[in-house]
Specification:
two-stranded antiparallel sheet; 16 helices; two-stranded antiparallel ribbon; mainly alpha
Length: about 400
């Protein structure tokens, strides 16, 4: 089905199920319960799950298949956002032209950066991509301020000369992004026995885009092109000795990966029409590296899991404050309660980065293959327990030699 093997089809259906049923899966606790703190079924948060999933899937095509570690992919994310907002300002508020332009602009930018950076490999390639990204970030603050609006960020206004749209709504407000009239911020809330589920048009657009991006990644992984990329990762020097030039393949996957990042940037701007230089900062590039490694570099579903894992716990840990902690441990004596809250305090709230850092260290040390390896270990353990033990009184099916 869909040109996929049995295993790939299973992974694809898992991703489709996770994306389509996320409003239910991310709201496991009733709205009024004390555990509602762990719910994450909000439209804006779910959008970030799938958008950064696209970002990580594209990065994994480069890093997971070829081994080329880029620290500059945030530049393509930012370029995609800027291109989308300019499309909203000049053409229309329809998200389709904005998304297409964001991919084209990011792809062209990736051709330039890749052509220069791919002349080197290893740490030198990583440094070159980081240098290009930081150069783009600083230019957005200085020389390119007329295009990027500098520190304030690029956003739509009432004075935009929109060709196929209105500059203001009937009530004098700024128009919102839409898909052929369907507003991206429109949402439907379903209340069932204490649970509240939100279904957002913007989220489902992003989810469909991620499903298509994941399907394309599967086809690339299983294609002769993907096989050549694995050969480059295995031993590029030996490949060159056979007379095959690896440069066109690495440049092609670099551009494809950049277009994935541009798509993610365009979707970010489509959900919230604002583009700022902070999206091009090196920390955003480092975040997608963490997502890919945490989920499982070189695997298909790993980047999706890594992106969801980081964005989920980033949201959960950052919301926990001392008041929440005291409500959790109120059953303890006052002295012990204050001690426990004091011990946990540095790891939550503003210190959530510390918790994620420790979790990342543990995964890298004990699960070098990421969350996917953890799932595989659990699967092997379950199969081993289900396998019936052989009765020692019964003869072995294979005769002794």
């Amino acid at each position: 089905m869909f040109g996929l093997g049995k295993k790939d089809l299973s992974l694809f259906l898992i991703v489709v199920g996770l994306a389509l049923f996320a409003p239910f899966l991310l709201n496991p606790f009733p709205t009024g319960s004390s555990l509602a703190q762990f719910n994450a079924g909000y439209p804006d948060l779910m959008q970030r799950f799938v958008i950064f999933g696209i970002f990580a899937i594209g990065f994994n095509l480069l890093f997971g298949l070829t081994g080329y570690l880029s620290f500059g992919h945030a530049a393509f994310l930012g370029m995609g956002s800027y291109a989308a907002v300019w499309m909203f300002k000049l053409l229309s508020m329809n998200v389709i032209p904005a998304i297409l332009l964001s991919m084209v602009v990011a792809g062209l930018f990736a051709v330039v950066i890749g052509y220069v950076s791919l002349r080197r490999s290893g740490i030198y390639f990583s440094i070159l991509t980081l240098a290009f990204a930081q150069m783009s970030y600083n230019l957005a603050y200085s020389v390119l301020t007329p295009i990027t609006n500098g520190e304030t960020g690029l956003q739509i206004t009432l004075n935009d000369p929109r060709i196929f749209g209105v500059s203001a709504t009937a009530d004098g407000g700024i128009p919102v992004t839409n898909l052929f009239g369907l507003e991206m911020r429109s949402a439907t809330t379903l209340d069932i026995a204490g649970w509240s589920f939100s279904f957002s048009a913007g989220y489902y657009l992003c989810a469909i885009m991620m499903i298509l991006a994941f399907y394309l990644a599967i086809r690339i992984f299983r294609s002769p092109f993907g096989l050549m990329l694995r050969a480059i990762k295995s031993n590029q020097h030996r490949l060159n000795y056979t007379g095959l030039n690896a440069r066109p393949y690495t440049l092609a996957v670099f551009v494809i990966s950049g277009m994935y990042a541009g798509l993610a940037g365009g979707l970010l701007a489509s959900m919230d029409p604002l583009a700022g230089p902070e999206r091009m900062q090196w920390t955003a590039s480092g975040e997608v590296v963490l997502m890919t490694i945490l989920g499982g570099a070189g695997t298909l579903i790993g980047p999706v899991l890594g992106a969801g894992f980081i964005k989920y716990f980033e949201n959960i840990f950052s919301k926990i404050n001392d008041g929440v902690l005291h409500s959790w441990f109120a059953f303890l004596p006052d002295g012990i309660e204050n001690l426990v809250v004091g011990l946990i305090h540095p790891f939550v709230g503003k210190g959530w980065h510390l918790t994620l850092g420790l979790m990342f260290m543990l995964v890298v040390i004990f699960l070098p293959g990421g969350l996917v390896e953890g799932g595989q270990r659990i699967g092997r353990l379950m199969r081993r327990r289900k396998k019936p033990a052989q009765d020692p009184r019964k003869p072995s099916p294979n005769p002794a030699e």
